[in-house]
C-alpha cells in the first residue's frame, strides 16, 4: 500500500473570514488569501458604494512599520518619492522600484509620528516588499558612517500578520464613522483631509477599540480605512455594520472593489503595474522625485535615463483610458488595434455600472495615445470601437 501525504493547505484567511462566511460570501483566491468576491449581487454592491456606503475587508494588505530617527531618510532611499516631506498625520502614494526602474509595487506611506511611518503594500506583494525593505535597510545602514557601531537608528517591523484593515467607502462614510467615535473626536473625523490619518478609538458599549483611521480608499468615493489589531477586527466590523444600518451600508467584495477602482482610473498591480513597466509608462512620473529629492535612491539612475529618453511621452507605450463606443467590453490581454495593426494591449476592462458603457485601461504606443484617438479592441476576432479619453472615467461630485 502506497502511503500518501495530504496536500499542505496554503490559503490564508483574514480575521474576518467567519463573518464573511456567515453573510453568505462567495470566496476567491487573491494573493494566497481567501477573500470575499461578493455577498450577493456585485452590481448592487458597486451601486451601494456610489450612492450610500460599502464595508470592505482589506486585511490581506501588508503593513510594515519603519521607525527611528533615520526612518524618513531610509524611505527616501528605498522608495521613489520624497517621503521625508510627509507631515505628521499625512500620507503619500509612492512606488518601490528595482534598480532597472521596474515597478515592484505601488503603496501608501503614512507618517503616524515624527519617526514612525507605516508602509502599506498590496496583498500579493506584501512579503516581497517587506523582504525588499529589509534588504535595502542593510544597504542603507552600510552607507552610513559608523552605523554598525552606533545605536540603531532604524527599525523595520512587518506587522502584516497581526493587523486587520477595514474600509468604509461611499458618500455616507463620514456619517457612519461619526456613529462609532466619541463625540469629542467628531471634529477630528470631519476635519480629516484626503490622504491623512489619525489615531483614535471606536466606541463600544463595553469598551473601546484603538484604530488608525485614514481617509483613503480605492473606489473613487469619499471613505475611510481603519487599521486594527486582528483580535479586535470582528468587533470593529460589527460596530461599523450596526452604525451603517440607517445609511445604506452593505458588505462589499473584491468584484465591486475592482469595478469601482477601474471607473476611478486607479491602477492594479499585476494589471497596469509590473516589473516590466516604469512609472513614466504608467502615467506615474510625478510620483518619482528626481528633482525634489537629493541623494541616491534605488532605481534613480535608470528612472532618470528613462525620463530623459521620453519613456511614456515620446517613446514606447503609455497607459490610457478607453471608452467603448459599442456595447461589448474589452478584457485584460485583448489586443488594441489601429487600422487593423496591433498598437497595444488592454490591462483591465469591463462594462461600467455607473456610466453605462464599457471602459478599459490599456497600454498603447505613444503615437496613438492622445485623447480623442479612435482605436479598436480585438474581441476574439471582432474589432470593437473605442476612444482614448481622459482619466478617471468617473469622478465624484464634491
Automatic annotation (TrEMBL):
GO molecular function, one term: aminomethyltransferase activity
Statement: the UniProt record of this protein carries the keyword RNA-binding: no
Reactions this protein catalyses: N(6)-[(R)-S(8)-aminomethyldihydrolipoyl]-L-lysyl-[protein] + (6S)-5,6,7,8-tetrahydrofolate = N(6)-[(R)-dihydrolipoyl]-L-lysyl-[protein] + (6R)-5,10-methylene-5,6,7,8-tetrahydrofolate + NH4(+)
Span of domain GCVT N-terminal: 16-291
Protein name: Aminomethyltransferase
Residues of the Aminomethyltransferase C-terminal domain: 318-395
Subunit structure: The glycine cleavage system is composed of four proteins: P, T, L and H.
Pfam families xrefs: GCV_T, GCV_T_C
PANTHER family, per the entry: AMINOMETHYLTRANSFERASE (PTHR43757), AMINOMETHYLTRANSFERASE, MITOCHONDRIAL (PTHR43757:SF2)
UniProt-listed Enzyme Commission number(s): 2.1.2.10
Organism field: Sinomonas halotolerans
Domain of life per record: Bacteria
Keywords: Aminotransferase, Transferase
NCBIfam families: gcvT, PRK00389.1
The keyword Transmembrane helix appears for this protein: no
